[in-house]
Amino acid sequence: MSAQTSPTRIPDPTTRYRRTGQRGVNTEMLSWMFMRASGALLVILIFGHLFVNLWLGLGVKGIDFAFVAGKWANPFWQVWDLLMLWLGLIHGGNGVRTIINDYARSSTPRLVLKGLLLVAVVVTIVLGTLVIFTFNPCPAGAEPSLLPAVCQG
């Protein structure tokens, strides 16, 4: 080593890292925190969903139109399923966004892929939300022979 160069100095690991030049909100950190929180909540929601639908009920054989109609007649289950839908799609979309950022080399394909992802997530959330809150197994004025058994009587 020459007298002119000094050895690389490694900072003390107990000191906080300072960023230079960054201002505003750290969106990647917020994204990381959202993934952890939504993942934990999704585990609870999904296992609750499976417990009620498969173990307390008749299993897979018991899940039919009437079962869903009965469940969605209760606002609690509408909100439960809505949370699963929204959190699952946003969590998954955020994960795919991270993959796009990692693998799309140039900005144009990255922008196109992220735009398509956003459209797909938003359309699916909107359609799923409409299905959950507008679901009516017994629409007024429908031909009685076409209605399910839960609407008879």
Automatic annotation (TrEMBL):
<keyword id="KW-1133">Transmembrane helix</keyword>
<dbReference type="Pfam" id="PF01127">
    <property type="entry name" value="Sdh_cyt"/>
</dbReference>
<feature type="transmembrane region" description="Helical">
    <location>
        <begin position="78"/>
        <end position="100"/>
    </location>
</feature>
<keyword id="KW-0812">Transmembrane</keyword>
<keyword id="KW-0472">Membrane</keyword>
<feature type="transmembrane region" description="Helical">
    <location>
        <begin position="39"/>
        <end position="58"/>
    </location>
</feature>
<dbReference type="InterPro" id="IPR000701">
    <property type="entry name" value="SuccDH_FuR_B_TM-su"/>
</dbReference>
<keyword id="KW-0479">Metal-binding</keyword>
<feature type="transmembrane region" description="Helical">
    <location>
        <begin position="112"/>
        <end position="135"/>
    </location>
</feature>
<keyword id="KW-0408">Iron</keyword>
<keyword id="KW-0349">Heme</keyword>
<protein>
    <submittedName>
        <fullName>Succinate dehydrogenase hydrophobic membrane anchor subunit</fullName>
    </submittedName>
</protein>
<dbReference type="InterPro" id="IPR034804">
    <property type="entry name" value="SQR/QFR_C/D"/>
</dbReference>
